[in-house]
Predict the 3D structure of the following.
Amino acid sequence: MSRSALPPPPATTAEGMLEREDGNRIFWDEAGAPDGVPTLYLHGGPGGRLTPGHRRNVPEDRARIIALSQRGAGRSTPSAGAPGPVDLSALTAAHLVADLEALREHLGVDAWIVQGVSWGSTLALAYAQAHPERVLGVVLFAVTSTSRREVDWITEGVGALYPEAWDAFAAFAEERAGFDRRDRSPQRLRLVEAYRRMLVAEDPDLVDAAVRAWTTWEDAHIAIGGGGPSEPSAPPRDTPVTEHARGFARQVTHVWAHDGFVADWAVPFGAAPGSGLLGGVHRLQGIPGVLIHGRRDVSGPTLTAWELHRAWPGSELIVVEEEGHGGPIMAEHWREAMERLVDGARRARPVVS
């Protein structure tokens, strides 16, 4: 089925704001069948938009379709994209996972199927490892684990494929933040850290110039094979930088500069320090998982999806040869995976609430 032939997404049936003890307010909404199998959708980014299209990928007649704007993004407050100085210290994987568990309790959900797109797949893996008893199944789309290898590739290594765009991207950081592309020492200033510093600077002109440079680079490397489902376009040169674009760039660089805050995530679960999310995959034993990835995803090579699949017995890996960081064929596989997992959960647990 072509994307243009898809029906409109189901309308929301409820929405609200979840109050967190640190002052964050998390926007959530739901659609579908109130007594259906609960499902949770995690958008990309960090800092991506919560758009209604994801609801098309879940059977609305037998699933309770729950989603949220992750802290700092979308309709959640405070916004990471607000003008002026921002404090992102409470934006970590641990805070985000705690938000998900608080939302589950708030909505009276016993367990749910968790879906994650791009960065959302990292967050889904982190949540599933922390709370496997609350997870009925996992669907990951454009699979990432936000390891240092992945971050260094997407910010520096992939420049080998886009040398013109990367040269402009790096040159801006060399001029404004002291990045040195010739420095290969372990102590060097990483390019993602240079942008992180600029994006939280006190100079609003520097912040917005860095937003333009960052999002222009994002648009360049994510364009192959269908583009990402939640990435913003760079603001046109003659228009103001939007709050969304500013928040997206701030949150991405903050989280990526800290390697997703997941380098040692699995240590409490018996993994070696620095093993990242792949070290905790044993926690997912018995949980069905479907991993959907595009072969042409140059921003996130298929290697991570393959490594995760090999470490996760019983998982299914679907590689779509002709698409990249998203696309209609991948979305069709997503819909089919959710149909199977929802129906499987209904057979195993006729009443899930």
Q: What stands out?
A: Residues 28 and 48 are 14 Å apart (CA to CA). The chain has a mean pLDDT of 93. Strands lie at 12-19, 25-32, 37-42, 63-68, 112-117, 135-141, 289-294, 316-320. The chain is about 35% helix and 15% strand.
